[in-house]
User: Fold these one by one.
Assistant:
Number 1:
Amino acid sequence: MLRSIWNIILRNIKTFTMIFALGFIWLLFSILTQFGFVQPENLSNLFRQMTIISFLSIGMVLVIVTGNIDLSVGSVTGFLSVIAAFLQYYVFSSLLSGMLPTADPLLVGAISTVLTIIVVVATGVGIGALQGTMVSYLGIPAFIVTLGGMFIFRGGVLAITQGKTIGPVEESMKAIAQEYTSPLVGWVIAGVAIALIFFGILWRRRQKKAYGFELKPMRFDILKACFFSVLVFSYVLVMNLYQVMGEFKSIQYPVLLMAVVALVFSYLSSNTRFGRYAYAIGGNKEAARLAGINIKKNILQVFILMGVLCAVAGIVLTGRVGYGTTSGGDKYELTAIAGCVIGGTSLMGGEGTILGALVGSLIMTSLDNGMSYMNLGPEWQYIIKGAVLILAVYLDVVSKKKK
């Protein structure tokens, strides 16, 4: 059995390297901060901080898997964030108040938030479609298109804000990024998640058996399910210990949203024709073309999904800050790409997972959080994050050469 476990570790060396790196980072910061880093308050902030980068990293996985890159995601997120704040503060507040003068202000605010989300997501789809069309149908390299987009949308942020902060936004918008479930609801969600973990693993075994694929011993799948179940249980247990003004909190709303988005995109990338085509294009574009895959259409769809996730990130950013700011989304693209690469996504295309991107995002956010907790100077923060990114790319190049 030990030999089998060792073989599994060798076949999944990137995954276990990530887990070891994350554990080492948490242990190091715990010791350096006298275990303040792993207190419920800080961990709650840590997971809430990682959500925005995680949305971008999830979309970036598919972009990079197809052999492309998107340098504009940070600027697009900031642009959509200030659009959300502008709509809430200048447009819908006065428009809806005039149309519904006797309505409850909370209801008016909720309607404003729903309309804002619809407009922002539609704008994100449009931006993704525009950039995707230029890359796939006009043949302009993604690097150039998105580099230009980075400058254009950063200019759009300044044009909308006029260099000023916009807001505040509605309380319903803030709740998307700032509120928590109750401890009881947190335990219910944990129970459902654990049940889904076991069901999903057993369902996949059944599918593999039906199609004649080789199956690992049942004990390995059970151990895998138990491992993820312990993670879920531990997370909810720690989050339920977090108190705000004497009131116990639990799972953060943006973390729940991140989990749903991750599950949806994991299914898209692993269990749909669209996902398989994306990996095929990144693995060997010419072979994918000869196999009859519509490469242009697939790449366009990938960029549209990236635009949707930029919209989600922008909405959560607006809710978390409570305003539209000129610096929103600044340098997010670099952190998102770093999260993907650290999470095992190959810059050469054809390889990467959503789970890996989440772990990579957590590693990057842990570095940011831990170094800020220690009041480490910004110069050292940049140096350390840059060194980690270079090391991750080096490990990817080495593994590719061995293969």
Note: The beta strands are 243-244, 247-248.
Number 2:
Amino acid sequence: MAQQFVFRNLQLLDPRFDDIRGGHEVLVEGETIREVSARPIKTANAAAIDCGGKTLMPGLIDCHAHVFLVEVGIARLESLPLTLLAAKASVLMRQMLDRGFTTVRDTGGADWGIKEAVENGTLAGPRLFISGRAIGPTGGHTDSRRRTQFGETACHCCDALSFITGIADGADQMRQAVREQMRQGADQIKIMLSGGVASPWDPLDSLQFSIGEITAAVEEAHAFGRYVLAHAYTPEAITRGVTHGVRTIEHGNLIDAPTAKLMAERKAFMVANLVTYYMMRDHGATLGLSASQLEKNDLVIEGGLRSLEICKRAGVPVGFGSDLLGKLQVHQSREFLFRSEVLSPIEIIRQATLVGAQIVRREGKLGVVEPGAFADLIVIDGNPLKDLGLFQDQGARLSAIMKGGAWHKNTL
């Protein structure tokens, strides 16, 4: 019989409800939740966990993270062997789990090997939904080659940057690149539709990939039972993607109301991430970002909070993302605080649970506390609906963290 735990003396925060509810108990059996009851649960075999009146809620979901982008200045990855890349990524993943993020959608870089290492318990980390190599065009957001360098780097084992990013030009190359990522176990496909902050040469408002290339990516992903997510900042870039089947837009800082209306009509998701821009502004220069990259960063900061308001008015579901690089990933939970400028705590928590589960297509299995869901649970020393600061300080106020019925942390 699978091991059982019964959580008692708790305040239940199931984000489907507006308020915390007392008087509930939760029974975990194996990797899933077996019972949630407003009455005492009778069980002879379960180990009782007294939560001491603290809050029990689903584990958090970060829908835009990069466990393999272990340097802020990503050009430094060119000289990083994959062995060192994996070692550094293992530290970042453990720290994410320490902060209560039991699920992470990696939006470019992580491969089936690191995912398997987490799933079989070799490494501690969140559930990973991987994109494989992020795909961009020549000169686009995935192209960080020096201007003196021509052609693609031949060796992917001693150049981490070439391992985690890819280049495709034309619909045929796009189809091949997408098929290869799916062969490599990708849960979703990442493409670039506009310029980026961390890439050296492309303007933010540049349009990347033709309609034919976008369509090819979407067709191949759908044929394999997967979907496409797209890096895009401007209304035109977002419109091109959503109109041609892209399911989630990443960043979207410069979105306008008509584009948000289109996203709502097409049932597309936005995955916002504010914290990375503020952290790159404050620390990027000392960690390897160039003056041109910092200038682009300033352009998108202003639109970040406004984009959340625009999406809320239009009814666009917004997922929780961080998009932090390297050493800056310690600031992952500060995303809660930045969003609180325009959203309520329950809205933000839903973005980091319910909406995240929809994005990774695990509704009913993640982001909720109900029978049949994975036992991904955290216990917090207080009420996060009143104080989002409880998520700060690297998980210091998390008394317990459980992923799939297994303890990562338990101080109860």
Note: The two ends are 24 Å apart (CA to CA).
Number 3:
Amino acid sequence: MANEIPSNLKYTKDHEWALIEGDVVTVGITDFAQSQLGDIVFVELPEVGTQLDSGATFGVIESIKSVSDLYAPIAGEVLAANNDLEGEPEKCNEAPYESWLIKIKCSQETELEGLLSPDDYEKVCE
């Protein structure tokens, strides 16, 4: 089954996507992640204003099969959390690239260079 990997995004080895707009990075889970998780039943996200370190856990996503931590792809401050997902976590399955989790104000732009290109991410999924 081919995974959808949009070319305008960057990716992490933890199967999260990152949309970079200036110094704001929108983060969500990839199509591959949602297909591996199965039916998502719960999403827990951080409060706005939370300071995150790169690689730190920022939340939890729970499916009928497992509970997985969510990891910050970069360091920065949480500007927004998609609290709609707390009431409708299945949106992560239905539209993983529209159902963003958090928006982070990037504190170190050099960290963005560590994110994977779509081609590199495709290799991670193989």
Note: The mean pLDDT is 95.
Number 4:
Amino acid sequence: MIPFNVPPCVGTELDYLAEAVRARKISGDGQFTRRCSAWMEERFGAKRVLLTTSGTAALDMALLLCGLQPGDEVILPSYTFSSTANAAVLAGAKLVFVDIRPDTMNIDEKKIEAAVTERTRAIIVVHYAGVACEMDAIMAIARKHGLKVVEDAAQGVMATYKGRWLGTIGDFGCYSFHETKNYSMGEGGALVLNDPKYIERAEVLREKGTNRSRFYRGEIDKYTWVDFGDSFLPSELNAAYLWAQLEKAEEINENRLRSWKNYEEALSPLAAAGKLELPVVPEGCGHNGHMFYVKCRDLEERTKLIAFLKERDISAVFHYVPLHSAPAGRKFGRFHGEDEVTTRHSDRLVRLPMYYGLTEEDAGRVIRAVKDFYGE
């Protein structure tokens, strides 16, 4: 069986895990947590990066830092994972879903402003497949209406928009290091703070409402409970696993991009013949090879393709059921405008196997199977 995903592993993870154990510091904010945070701050030019227990936790923190009140509204795409929406619901906001673009599957920047009301406080953008949303237009809307922008860059680590790293453009950026992502710590994530004024509040929020971070830096002689907070710190063991991969970040990125390009070149004749559609990467966007998908003619064809691949020991999956059609989506939000793209295109999309270390032989098997399905 060719799996859909294999968690990344570069070979030094166990060495660093052992080092963390020998140091007798396996709770949060030890040497490996500091290394990972410092690496991202330097590499991405972020004001501050805080490792979290998950990408979901990073989103939760970002929306809480937006200072939302009950009844406030948050604009977001319906084509995303539930974590994006849960973070806004947790903060007490109402969800306002808008349609997506058919080329990138990202939020349609042209449909955001019409959804803005006097209750709107934030926009959450999701950089699907590590391909950037149209951030210049979105940031202009946000500035015009005084809105916060949260980048759900769970799939966007090491991807760029017009030379800027995803996660560093809005007010807050959120990364995921789940085992399905390009870089992993099993379960984990990071909050990127792009405005220094939020750093102290974020540290308190992350440390169970205490000012312990200041205590560890020697800025105060004891720490205490100062505000609302929660426990968003990951274990040092998780951070040690991630550090091994950040050291090999370029290698992992280049490996995934080669696999992505291999798929694109081999399947482009099918796209040229109008039998399927391939991912689109707009000019100015530097993607990270997070996923490779194809779009079938319709839901029926997609179902048949997935079954066809499964019969040949190839695992392929679809991605997402639109949130506005889910029970919780109907309970907590509404769809603004017409659903012209979201449902129709989500019904057509199939994700092919993609992971660090995918061999050319296995990729070739996937490519041949897709071509066989379409009679090529």
Note: The two ends are 23 Å apart (CA to CA).
